[in-house]
Design brief:
alpha+beta; 6-stranded antiparallel beta sheet; 5-stranded parallel beta sheet; 26 strands; 30% strand; elongated
């Protein structure tokens, strides 16, 4: 870590990017949201955080160092807040500025869940509330949405879109009214600057759920923030001999302590909605990959079930689990017509089950519960039967403790019900493993690889199908 951090700092210095060099970098950050790990792991993590802080300071960036969500950040490191609201936050020393390094404009998009949206009225209220408390710095996360390409998205179940309902969307287009309303908020705060930087606010009650925060300078500058934290009801308040109407859950900003120039709940910006249109004139083709289309050199066999990430090393999202089941000719289900049932328990995140080359079912987990269980009837015949399970990892964990315990893949048990013997546990018999898909090995996703096979007319509802569009 020290080598990497030093490399980055040296690169920034060589390009003249720090503020004292005339560049745009005004802050340096070391680690990110490491505090929760300290709570979990105790002294070893505290020692690491202290080492990281001292290492960073020694690099002499010439700008302040910060640690996000690190309550005991050692001096001169500034501990900062990340969250939807940070008006509750104070740094661990009174001489440190109150900084909000991640004002969340929404949340990341997950597979299988609605696209998150945060109303700009609520976001503006959170920012104004932070400033009225004496906050000195706000950084939006995200202000410009983005896109993760290929397999670079986090997880589990994080989509490749990292739009975050940001003021600038992942296509680089302005999202209104979020962009315009925040622009007006920033303009109003800027008008308050002479009073804001002069000292702490004087707070007075204006009602049961209403208050004023007044900033004054020695030169006569005055700025006021009038808050109504009631979520349902409007409020009329009296301030400095005048009446002000405050919408629910809002703050009015008065740069001269008289005139309201902005209210967080009153949106005057134009509302715009993006309309997606179907792309026309495209030609679709498909290529069908065979099930278990691997050679002996590409596969390996082990007794029992193996954890997926340890096998794939995250070089692919796919791992084949294949085993064989011998069925005697005297099995009753062969004549009764009552098919056996197969149960497969997996740590996540998605699973396709094939029996004798035919897809018998698909199951997948969720953001809240990545674990899954497949249960379904299977068609077996007398003699040897092949059970192949394609396990799919939908991203690696992006936050949390003890990542080594966050498993993926089939860990069992795998049980076959409905045989003469009652149940047969397949967990500890021999399994053959194949890392990745054949199409990945052939680089079908690349321009050169896609030309190595013959593509045909697109097919529907066919498993293991690659699609190409031109």
């Amino acid at each position: 870590m020290q080598k990497f951090t030093t490399k980055i700092v040296d690169m920034m210095k060589s390009e003249g990017l720090f503020e004292w060099q005339g560049g745009p970098i005004i802050l340096s950050q070391i680690e990110n949201e490491f505090g929760p790990l300290e709570w979990d792991q105790g002294e070893p993590s505290k020692a690491y955080a202290s080492w990281a802080a001292n290492m960073a300071i020694a690099l002499n960036t010439g700008v302040p160092w910060i640690m996000c969500k690190e309550d005991d950040a050692p001096d001169p490191i500034i501990n900062t807040c990340n969250g939807f609201y940070c008006d509750w936050f104070s740094p661990n020393k009174p001489h440190k500025p109150t900084m909000w390094t991640e004002a969340w404009t929404a949340w990341y998009t997950g597979f299988g869940v609605p696209v998150p949206h945060r109303p700009v009225e609520d976001l503006a209220y959170g920012v104004a509330k932070f400033i009225q408390k004496g906050g000195s710095f706000v950084n939006y996360y995200m202000y410009h949405g983005g896109t993760n390409f290929g397999r670079t998205a986090g997880g589990p179940f994080v989509a490749t879109s990292y739009d975050y309902d940001a003021p600038i969307d992942e296509y680089g287009l302005l999202r209104e009214p979020k962009w315009g309303h925040l622009k007006e908020l920033h303009r109003a705060i800027k008008l308050c600057e002479p009073a804001l930087v002069a000292g702490d606010p004087i707070i007075s009650s204006l009602g049961k759920a209403q208050k004023s925060s007044v900033f004054r300078s020695s030169t006569g500058a005055c700025a006021a923030f009038l808050e109504n934290k009631d979520k349902l009801s409007y409020a009329r308040v009296s301030f400095s001999g005048m009446h002000y109407d405050l919408p629910p859950w809002s703050i009015s900003i008065l740069p001269d302590c008289k005139t309201t120039v902005f209210n967080t709940a009153r949106v005057g910006s134009q509302i715009s909605q993006m309309k997606m249109e179907w792309a026309g004139g495209l030609t679709w083709q498909s290529y069908n990959e065979e099930i278990n289309s691997y050679s002996e050199e590409e596969a390996f066999t082990a007794v029992g079930l193996l954890e997926q990430i340890n096998m794939t090393r995250d070089n692919t999202d796919y791992l084949w689990y294949t085993t064989y089941v011998d069925v005697a000719k005297n099995e009753q289900f062969l004549t009764s017509g009552k098919s056996p049932k197969l149960t497969v328990m997996s740590a996540g995140h998605a699973l396709h089950v094939f029996v004798n080359g035919q897809l018998t079912g698909t199951v997948y987990g969720s953001v809240e519960d990545p674990k899954l269980t497949y249960t379904g009837s299977v068609k077996l015949w007398a003699g040897s039967n092949t059970i192949s399970c394609l396990s799919i990892a939908v991203g690696l964990p992006n936050v949390g403790e003890h990542f080594e315990t966050w498993n993926a893949g089939i860990l069992g048990p795998v049980i076959l019900y409905g045989l003469n013997e009652g149940r047969r546990d397949l967990t500890w018999q021999k399994w053959t493993y194949q890392v990745g898909l054949k199409g990945e090995a052939m680089s079908l996703h690349s321009l050169s690889g896609s030309s190595s096979v013959e593509w045909g007319e697109p097919v529907q509802k066919q498993p293991l199908t690659w699609y190409k569009v031109m």
